[in-house]
Design brief:
about 350 residues, alpha/beta, TIM Barrel, 8-stranded parallel β-barrel, two-stranded antiparallel ribbon, 13 helices, about 15% strand
């Protein structure tokens, strides 16, 4: 397992991060995503830690908070030393029926970090992330509340998820001007079949020294190679029940077709090739994998040992390339010849 910088914090996290969205199941979409009970969750955490994973991601809304409870119990059952694991959780989603039990207001953030710490059984989390944009709360209000969480020792660092590039940059500017703790990470959807992140956010995180945490790296299971072009796949799988995130299926299946011979030649699964491709992308700090079984987790963890060759990367890049979009094509055109070509 390799380790990469957690933004500019000076800490390092494993390039594979264990996601906990499959823990417990709860009701509604959470049960469709996964229903791993405590014994299975503890076994998954144990296997991940044994493989060198030191980074685990959860959220206050996963299985109505029960994923946090089960993660905390697993860490206690395994007697994991607190300083040996980096725990990340998130805030923004609805956690109750009232009008203020959602969003990024000071009240909701302060209430929810207290709730997350209680459910996890921890004194602090290492990374506290906003789970998305809240149009009802000024970003200054949110950043001040997050800075207070850092100052009070409730979290070591903060991050964001599912924001546009301009929103991230605005937040960074406010934090610098006001002396607040700044976002150190960006948790975002990124797959070989959905490379939109490369247009604006990847250049931003490289310029500003943030780390990208990739969620749903297999596009909700679509990139496992287990689905047909008509959408048919194994019964009970997440994608078969919960058709998310949105994917251009023609592009996705063209990519799967290109990955199959590489997987066969390497003695690996299609899913492992998709994860290995991500681990070799610019800006990626860690790829979050969620599993229902030890076998799934082992296959995902093995992606850390699979390094794709230049020709394989080129073939996959070509089939998955984004169509040109303004102003990107104009910037590329005007940039020609301005810098020396990199040496091979």
């Amino acid at each position: 397992m390799r380790y990469r910088p957690l933004g500019r914090t000076g800490q390092f996290v494993s390039e594979i991060c264990l996601g906990t969205m499959t823990f417990h199941g709860g009701s509604g979409i959470w049960r469709a995503i996964g229903a791993v009970e405590q014994k299975g969750a503890t076994a998954l955490v144990e296997r991940a830690l044994a493989a060198g994973v030191n980074f685990i991601d959860t959220a206050d809304v996963y299985s109505e908070g029960q994923a946090e409870v089960m993660l905390g119990q697993a860490l206690r059952d395994l007697k994991v030393k607190r300083e040996e694991v980096i725990v990340a959780t998130k805030v923004r989603g609805r956690t109750g029926p009232g009008p203020n039990a959602v969003g990024l207001s000071r009240g909701h953030i302060i209430d929810q970090i207290a709730g997350s710490l209680k459910r996890l059984g921890l004194d602090y989390v290492d990374l506290y992330q906003i789970h998305g944009f809240d149009p009802a709360t000024p970003i200054e209000e949110t950043l001040r509340a997050l800075d207070d969480c850092v100052s009070r020792g409730l979290t070591r660092a903060i991050g964001c998820s599912n924001l546009a590039a301009w929103q991230i940059m605005k937040a960074l500017g406010i934090s610098e001007r006001r002396g607040f703790a700044r976002f150190e990470t960006v948790q975002a959807y990124y797959t070989i079949a959905g490379r939109d992140l490369e247009r604006e956010i990847v250049p931003l995180v490289e310029d500003q020294g943030l780390g990208v945490m990739v969620w749903s790296p297999l596009a909700g299971g679509l990139l496992t190679g287990k689905f047909d072009r008509d959408g048919k796949g194994p019964e009970g799988t997440r994608r078969a029940v919960f058709d998310f995130p949105p994917v251009n299926r023609e592009r996705a299946f063209a990519v799967v077709d290109a990955m199959r011979p590489i997987a066969a030649a390497r003695g690996a699964s299609v899913a492992r090739v998709a994860l290995a491709w991500l681990l070799q992308r610019r800006g990626v700090m860690s790829v979050i994998v969620g599993a229902k079984t030890i076998e799934q987790l082992d296959d995902n963890l093995a992606a850390a040992d699979l390094t794709l060759g230049a020709e394989e990367i080129a073939a996959l890049d070509k089939v998955s390339a984004l169509p040109p979009e303004y102003p990107g094509w104009m910037i590329a055109r005007q940039s020609e010849g301005r810098l020396p070509e990199p040496k091979a």
